[in-house]
Specification:
With 535 residues, this protein is α/β, with parallel strands linked by helices. The strands form five sheets. It has an eight-stranded parallel sheet with strand order 11-10-9-5-2-1-13-12, covered by helices on one side. A five-stranded antiparallel sheet has the order 14-15-16-21-18. The protein has a three-stranded antiparallel sheet with strand order 6-8-7, with no helix packed on it. It is globular and about 80 Å long. It starts with 8 loop residues before the first strand and ends in a 6-residue tail after the last strand.
Length: 535
């Protein structure tokens, strides 16, 4: 029997920003439960909840202080159980964000570890002596600026943190740490969870010899918030030992029915596709993985083809997950708008393209509304990198602003109180209620395209073969034993005309076919029966 997740559509919910039921301005589990019928109406299969566990919220929950309890900001364990039950009644699976590579510095494990060098948890985190001149042990960078090492005067040592200094990295070389982490995962599986989204899945292990990274080979890729891309990050992450832990985690999940794990590969470029393949190869590692390969500025046919063909070649038995937006990057309706007819045109074309990709696909809440990036002022920010580097860095708050439900309601129906991030008019104008009332809305288009994907075996089971089409057109076939579809996308704001073979348009499309002439407007797209060549 084919596993449910292999062609699933996963809907990411950012709990802080989905629906507030208490008036404190922060979304909660009860709010998510209330809005689940909207999610189910899209035709998706699963929801992914960004972190909801106990946390001081220095990095919006990605700094966990208790892996086995719900943060009161979001509700209680009873609220979680009610959410799971409602989701299952609606036919939705539920996975949660598991942040396993690091904890909060307020976690009891770290509080014990930093006391001295001889306590029972002294080696549960990555500690190292200063170099003779007092500088950090390696040249590794933190993603949020500065060295990846913080000096602790109590122990007289540095500890490793790949992100904030308040997010110390666990020492996965210690088997007690591995056992403890596996126990926390088992806790949620026993509670009825359907799987995990594994944050920074290639960061679990570090080089025990503490070797410094060499400089980048090619043109340095300086990421917006740090200097990570100026090094070959070969000693601080993606270590070979990672595979052994993934296999242990898979053995745990295999004890349950229908569990799925998807890993976030924290890497850019072609290397990220290689890691995705490696981490999903065979049947004893991750069920699937995704990277930032399609979450950046690239919007060229060759880029998408290279990503998908690279995965096919590197992991013929692996499984990918593809998405265009999430809580860490600017929304794609804005990110790609400067090369498109409009933000709505990007939204419509992108879901048509995403639904044509082989594998599992992901949607970020609000994406189904064609939601755009919110412009914020410094005093409205909460994201640590933006607060540190403004105005050069805008941070991630712009894609995290609240979900909009009712155009004319206070804060677009998100909260009766002042929301943690503001709801501004350009975003409120895209509210669910307004789009429900308009038959030609982006929301209705999302439902139609997702339904078309699910109704056609070529798009759920079919294999992908790319066709040679003139730039800026991306074209490929999806072929299953019962049918073949040709999928064509004009990744530009200028009309494109192609001569095709004997075929016909089917399903949602933004194109015309006159005899053998296929005309694609700017951001046009088409599904066509059969295989065709372009001239």
């Amino acid at each position: 029997m084919r596993e449910w997740w292999r062609d699933a559509v996963i809907y990411q919910i950012y709990p802080r920003s989905f629906q507030d039921t208490t008036g404190d301005g922060v979304g909660d589990l009860a709010g998510i439960t209330r809005r689940l019928p909207h999610v189910a109406s899209l035709g998706v299969d699963c929801i992914w909840l960004s972190p909801i566990f106990m946390s001081p919220q220095k990095d919006m929950g990605y700094d966990v202080s208790d892996y086995t309890d719900i943060d009161p900001l979001f509700g209680t364990l009873a609220d979680f159980d009610a959410l799971i039950a409602t989701a299952h009644d609606l036919g939705l699976k539920v996975i949660t964000d598991q942040v396993l590579s690091h904890t909060s510095d307020q976690h009891p494990w770290f509080k014990a570890s930093r006391k001295d060098r001889s306590n029972a948890k002294a080696d549960w985190y990555v500690w190292a002596d200063p170099l003779p001149d007092g500088s950090p042990p390696t040249n590794w960078h933190s993603h949020f600026g500065g060295p990846a090492w913080e000096f602790d005067p109590g122990r007289g040592q540095y500890y490793l943190h790949n992100f904030l200094a308040s997010q110390p990295d666990l020492n996965f070389h210690n088997p007690d740490v591995v056992d403890a982490i596996l126990a926390t995962c088992k806790f949620w599986l026993d509670r009825g969870l359907d799987g995990f989204r594994l944050d920074t899945v290639n960061y679990y292990f570090h080089d025990q010899q503490l070797r410094s990274n060499p400089p980048a080979n090619a043109k340095p890729q300086v990421m917006a918030t740090d200097l990570y891309g100026m090094q070959q990050n070969i000693y601080n992450k993606t270590r070979p030992e990672n595979l052994g832990f993934l296999e242990k985690l898979r053995r745990l999940t295999d004890q349950y029915d229908d569990i799925m794990m998807v890993g976030e590969v924290g890497e850019m470029g072609d290397r990220s596709i290689e890691i995705m393949g490696e981490y999903t190869a065979g049947s004893d590692r991750l069920h699937m993985a995704y990277s930032f390969a399609m979450l950046g500025p690239d919007w060229e046919p060759d880029h998408f083809r290279r990503c998908i063909e690279g995965f096919q070649k590197g992991a013929p038995d692996g499984h990918p997950k593809w998405s265009f937006s999430n809580h860490d990057v600017p929304r794609h309706a804005t990110r790609w708008a400067d090369r498109s007819v409009s933000e709505d045109a990007v939204a419509r074309q992108s879901i048509a393209m995403l639904c044509a990709f082989e594998g599992t696909i992901g949607i970020y809440n609000g994406e189904e509304l064609g939601q755009t990036e919110t412009e914020l002022t410094y005093d409205e920010l909460t994201d640590p990198p933006a607060l540190r580097y403004w105005p050069a860095v805008k941070g991630r708050d712009g894609c995290r602003t609240p979900m909009v439900w009712e155009t004319d309601a206070s804060h677009a129906g998100f909260s009766t109180g002042s929301p943690w991030l503001p709801v501004k008019p350009p975003q409120a104008a895209r509210a669910v209620a307004a789009q429900e009332a308009a038959n030609d809305s982006v929301l209705h288009h999302y439902r139609a395209v997702i339904a078309f994907r699910k109704a056609n075996v070529s798009l759920t089971l079919g294999k992908t073969r790319f066709l040679d089409a003139p730039d800026p057109v991306l074209a490929f076939t999806r072929t299953a034993p019962e049918q073949t579809l040709t999928c064509v996308f004009n990744l530009s704001d200028s009309p494109q005309t192609l001569t095709v073979g004997d075929t016909r348009l089917v399903g949602p499309h933004h194109a015309t076919l006159d005899g053998a002439t296929l005309t694609l407007p700017g951001n046009g797209y088409a599904y066509m029966w059969g295989t065709t060549e372009f001239t």
